[in-house]
């Protein structure tokens, strides 16, 4: 059984990819909708929230946990992984590997939340694997609220303006590869791609899903998926549909402060 | 001693007003920065968070509590007020009274977070006081992240575009008065005012501050102010300065999940 958690529903983009690759697997998804977003929180509070999210998934008997949250993966995952026997997989390593394989000129862009970029996690792992790589990292804190409020159409002037602002240093650097270090960002990949023609976009959630699917033996069981959230599950189906490309699912509520 | 709480730091606009009116008063402010924003949360979780916020302030021995949060004031305050002996003042009643006094044509606009507008609290209280008033309510969920990310300059194209979108129904209605039903919104009052020339803007936090100052006897003590937040207080001073018009203050951390 694979556990997946995220600050909210963005991680459903990773679940979707994983479910496609492992249709016979059992999944438990937790979205911390009562405390979303994580991208502007401190190191200390992120550690607390991540531990609670993991502890809840452990009660479900999961064999591996995907932290489908760029912020948790970047800021605290390496630090807390040693506390658990269940393997914790984040979204950083797989997307760094894919970016290094994709780049021709060694210039790699990284975008994520404020906390993700401040942590420097993507840049450090890229440089550790390839010392001569050049990394241009930019925080894009408004992308999450823009996506969550439906400003996602390819011709949306507001999101295009904000994105042009954020992506200017990436464009100027000549990067040929860009890591979307937040699971909300693939939803506006069109807008990002239009501003950076010819640049290979790596979705960190999808990359992590591919890495888990490779390592994890496909279960013989009939596939199943359970969804949990920390705020009311009312309207979960509507919002989830955006991230699941139209599929309708329902969720149950969990009091995450108890974990 | 006056307790003030908000989902984050927007309520500092109300504190600032109150501190100006009652310079010899003692204040305790709590901002729930570990769980901000409240505007998209459910009724159930808002009730839980509001109770924890109030319970924390009660440990400080406050005589009255201002819920300087449009969402809490609209969605749950009336429901939970009976649970407490300490008086709870929200931002709805005072701004409704000021709007009714200000309007000439009886058409009043209300803007707030998604949860505030869904609750219908402002509209219900306006209609209860004046049945023939016409109320036009619009949720503006992107204003909070725009303000928090510094998109606040009067000529900011992004915020102007979003605001023009949100405020179109207010403009079309012919409203002569607009309640800013969220403590973040006064920060972009310039942009809102430019789009609605001649319309009287009522800041709900400032209106509530004026109402409390009127009812509350000024203390003889030397004034003091203490600030608490639920996430790390690092950088609190920088962000707080935006809401306090330049004043520098520091904050302590409180584990709000324990209350």
What descriptors fit this protein?
homodimer, about 260 residues, alpha/beta, Rossmann fold, 2 domains, 6-stranded parallel sheet, 12 helices, 10 strands, about 45% helix, globular
Spatial order of strands in the largest sheet of chain A:
4-3-1-2-9-10
How many domains of chain A? The number is 2
Largest interface: A-B, 25 and 25 residues
- Helix and strand pattern of chain A: EHEHEHHEHEHHEHHEHEHEHE
CATH fold-level topology of the largest domain in chain A: Rossmann fold
Distance between the termini of chain A: 20 Å
List the helices and strands and how they pair.
Two copies of one chain form a homodimer.
Chain A: E1 2-6, H1 12-21, E2 26-31, H2 43-58, E3 64-67, H3 70-75, H4 77-80, E4 88-89, H5 92-102, E5 107-112, H6 114-119, H7 121-129, E6 134-139, H8 143-148, H9 157-173, E7 177-180, H10 189-195, E8 200-203, H11 204-215, E9 224-229, H12 236-244, E10 252-253
Parallel strand pairs in A: 1-2, 1-3, 2-9, 3-4, 5-6, 5-7, 7-8, 9-10
Helix pairs in contact in A: 1-11, 5-7, 5-11
């Amino acid at each position: 059984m694979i556990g997946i958690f995220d600050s909210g529903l963005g991680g459903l983009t990773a679940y979707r990819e994983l479910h496609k690759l492992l249709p016979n697997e059992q999944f438990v998804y937790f979205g911390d909708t009562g405390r979303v977003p994580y991208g502007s929180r401190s190191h200390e509070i992120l550690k607390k929230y991540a531990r609670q999210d993991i502890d809840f998934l452990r009660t479900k008997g999961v064999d591996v946990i995907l932290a489908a949250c760029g912020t948790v993966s970047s800021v605290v995952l390496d630090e807390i992984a040693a506390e658990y026997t269940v393997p914790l997989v984040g979204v950083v390593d797989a997307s760094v590997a894919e970016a290094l394989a994709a780049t021709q000129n060694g210039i790699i862009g990284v975008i994520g939340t404020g906390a993700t970029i401040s942590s420097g996690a993507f840049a450090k792992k890229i440089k550790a694997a390839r010392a001569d790589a050049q990394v241009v990292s930019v925080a894009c804190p408004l992308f999450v609220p823009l996506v969550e409020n439906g400003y996602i159409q390819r011709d949306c002037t507001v999101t295009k303006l904000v994105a042009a602002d954020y992506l200017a240093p990436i464009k100027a650097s000549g990067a040929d590869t860009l890591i979307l270090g937040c699971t909300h960002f693939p939803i506006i990949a069109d807008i990002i791609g239009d501003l950076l023609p010819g640049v290979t976009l790596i979705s960190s959630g999808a990359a992590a899903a591919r890495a888990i699917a490779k390592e994890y033996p496909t279960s013989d069981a009939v596939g199943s998926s359970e969804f949990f959230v920390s705020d009311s599950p009312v309207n979960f189906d509507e919002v989830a549909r955006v991230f699941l490309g139209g599929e309708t699912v329902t969720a149950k509520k969990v009091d995450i402060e108890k974990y």
